[in-house]
Fold:
Amino acid sequence: MRSAMLKRFAVTNYRGFKNRIEWDLAHPSNYEFNKEAVVDGIIKNGIIYGPNGAGKSNLSLALFDIEYHLSQKFKSIDYYENYVYAGAMGSPVLFEYSLLLDGDVVDYFYSKNSRGQLIDEKLIVNGKSVFCKEGHSFEISDEFPIEETRKEGIRENVNHLSIVNFLLTSYPLAKNHYLIKLQHWCNNILWFRSLKQNEFIGLNTGPAVMEEYIIENNLVQDFSNFINTVSGQTFSFVPPKKGDKQLMYRINNVAVRFGDKFISTGTQSLLLLYYWYKILAGSEARFVFIDEFDAFYHFELAYEVCKRLFELKCQVFLSSHNTYLMSNELLRPDCNFILNHNKIKPLCDCTEKEIRWGNNVEKLYRGGAFSI
Structure:
């Protein structure tokens, strides 16, 4: 199976990012441990750290902007609120994606205004330009013959339609065509978090009732085992009857609603994690970002959850404040990133010291060994 992975992402003028910020995943170091964290020269798993307000959530949301015009999967309805950096409201937001899609390197660039409408758009595949729309100019490869009147309409583009979508719907394409691969990647990426409420972007077409999913798929015992394995908690679930949509468990032979006040916030978060973990394991997911994934987890529980997530075949990245996870046993210094001051860099690029397997990376971090 060949790779479908994000190599690089950059965004400019988005929310709290005044200047361009680039996240490069295609230049790992040559560490001899945890080699499974790098696939085809691209970082597969990682964690982003940074102080409050540094932009961890904003970077992840910016990365999923592509969902809003290239995918029909679920999206946040208020996404375009506070979309543009407040100091440059009249300037566009610029997005840059570099993807390795089953052997093809796809570089996709576009810009949007404060209402989220597409302005400019450019696609380069394996170093060759497919199309480029900038202002009122438009050029396209001979691969897609277009009559002049249609070209003129694209140059004006009063409806702010995506040229990628136009090509996907206007031409018969082979299943291994790079545009089909791009569409497939966009339809199989997921962002989610659980803070004040459960939020997600991508992968599914709409919200799901998690308990109902577990019951309908005969996963009650599996869910019980999962909670016990990762957190040490034991729940005696009541075997569901046909038509049941809520999980119940017993306390001293009294049936109690699983989602009631008896369940901690952390355990509720585990329910969300279990749901998405099962969906991801059975899907063609390509990229996952979990924002503040361990906000309600004990530090040891967060470690166990990380190990499970990093076993998934797709790229998985997390944001966290939990420096206990800065361990060479879990990841590598080139897979742990610091985001601050409109920059994001791996730990190994934030110090002049050589980081070795036996180093206590968390202690080094807390001691101020890394700067960005």
Remarks:
- The chain has a mean pLDDT of 93.
- The longest helix spans residues 265-281.
- The chain has two domains: 4-203+284-366, 205-282.
